[in-house]
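Practice record 12: protein with copper (II) ion.
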Amino acid sequence: MSDAVHAHEDHGHHAHPSGIMRWLTTTNHKDIGTLYLWFSLIMLFSAGSMALMIRAELFQPGLQLTQPDFFNQLTTMHGLIMIFGVIMPAFSGFANWQVPLMLGAPDMAFPRMNNWAFWILPVAAILLLSSFVLPGGAVAGGWTMYPPLYIQGGISYDLTILAVHIMGLSSIMGSINIITTILNMRAPGLTLMKMPLFVWTWLITAYLLIATMPVLAGAVTMLLTDRNFGTHFFNAAGGGDPVMFQHIFWFFAHPEVYILILPAFGIVSQVIPTFSRKPLFGYASMVYATASIAILSFIVWAHHMFTVGMPVAAQLFFMLSTMLIAVPTGVKVFNWTATMWKGSLTFETPMLFAIAFVCLFTIGGFSGLVLAIAPVDIQLHDTYYVVAHFHYVLVSGALFSIFAGIYYWLPKWTGHMYDERLGKWHFWLSVIGMNIVFFPMHFLGLAGMPRRIPDYSLQFTEFNQIATVGAFMFGFSQLIFLVVVLKAIRGGVKAPAQVWEGAEGLEWTVPSPAPYHTFVTAPVVK
Ligand code: HEM
Ligand SMILES: [Cu+2]
């Protein structure tokens, strides 16, 4: 009894450790958000340099800089790290910083689990990156991990499976935390249908993660036992089926692509109303559209495998269900446009990235619809057209929304305004560079250039050269972003609590920088 009382008194406000121990042991949602965001930025530069090596090799036909096997390691690790190491952790960083602030909650529901969810990520990153120096090099079978390649490879394949398990565990812990926080820790009066859209999109994303990460874990565990323990799940010689892997993998990975985009929809839905000085058009329809996209994402997976040979009825089902996703997505694009309609618009950097998101993500959505047409996809599958598609949705979609969100909330996080002039330079160089890299890839794909090859036929040279020039332009302009962030951390014009004139939400009621502990007593929302 007295022990319990003692323990209760002890908990709370003693001085928290400083230096490295502050970060290792932190249970503070803002610290953990910052850790996620820095981790993501470091991974962006490491996977980004792999992309530049890939593009440098592809500047000319023939083999210049890399051997084919190393080239395949670069494309595989680039994809794996960009998805699991950059986009997902960045969104977790936003969730940690913003969900409690937007809900008027003092912290996340499970602060210690929050600490674990982050700190196992660098372990996974080290497993992945260090495999470059192991015998046989890093994994080279593509981020999609298809057998038989993934059954045949060396030790790095086992390490990658372990890394995928760790990253999945981190996502599940993060999601449990986010769902519990949103459902239980909202300020009095903040009903679900009053929540900021960013919180809504993360709530739905967290459910997607909990539903699909175990599927991925199952798939890679079966790979592991096929590799090491004599099972034959995916080995045709032993009665297994490699196509079964593709079904299991894409049952995870198509919802996964929405995990990579729903929080982006959330960020853009915060930024556009602010700089339009109007409330979001169609709030409720945005919530329902997000939920519909999430539900539909479970029934379209085989659009990634039209070429494996499936009954016509199945082809039709997956083609039409995929096209159905364009309806709620169209609702969203309509609502963002309608929010801007007759608003008093201003074009600060967050808004520029958000507008670019709406325009360019839509291009990616359209090329997705083209790919969804089964007979067309049989021509375009595994060509550069697919590469163009997913970079439009992931770079000008997910990544641009992350930039929009960083510029939008950086003054709240650091207490300083970022350098608007440098921000605009970063925006324009990124948006122009990005289109120079990826737009020509549509033409390359239509002309038949396969993806994942280090060498190509002569007729593809010009578009590849253009793409490589754009890639270096895009890549190096990210250094401007790094400078902007560092400058804002070190100083600059002091940011007021209400950073943006038109912004609404509880995060703008606390000072900038947001104090270490906020909403110790809950605000009341009317
Ligand atoms: C209207 C929405 C969308 C449609 C109709 C669509 C459709 C498709 C189809 C049919 C493919 C398969 C192409 C092939 O391999 O032959 C594909 C590939 C892909 N999509 Fe989408 N998509 C949409 C949105 C998205 C979004 C939002 C993301 C991510 C943020 C995304 C990421 C990807 C990726 C990464 C691949 C390539 C997977 C791989 O083979 O490595 N897509 N998409
Ligand atoms: Cu898909």
